[in-house]
Design goal:
Blueprint: H1 4-21, H2 25-40, H3 49-66, E1 79-81, E2 84-86, H4 111-124, H5 130-133
Antiparallel strand pairs: 1-2
Helix pairs in contact: 1-2, 1-3
Amino acid sequence: MTTPAAVQIRQKYRSLNKLVKKLPENDMEKSLHELRTSFRKALGETESVETRLQDADNRISFLQMITPKDKPAKGGTWVYKDGKRIEGGSGTRFDANGNVHSNWDGKNLDPCSVKRHNQQLNRVGFLNNQHAKGYF
């Protein structure tokens, strides 16, 4: 069974099987049983291998839309507090009281905000304040 159609059938079955196993538990058993019976069922008189492969492609497309996606293993957001990494943190900018948590307050300025402010002043033509101070 090494015909090109057989190779395609095995590929479709494997990809469908992987997608079905990613489904939630209550849907997985029913879908796995449906997958096995549909691939083991004999071809009807009016059916062809191409129509079965097309049905499998349609099922793969549908399952790719509804299966939960895996979280990426690399990257992500980490929350550090007091120099220690907090596992499972929410990663939000809000504290327990609902206030925005920021390193920048009234006593210091956010360097990005200062840079943006200066760029906007230069854009509108306020290069310096020599005209206000005078020449002395």
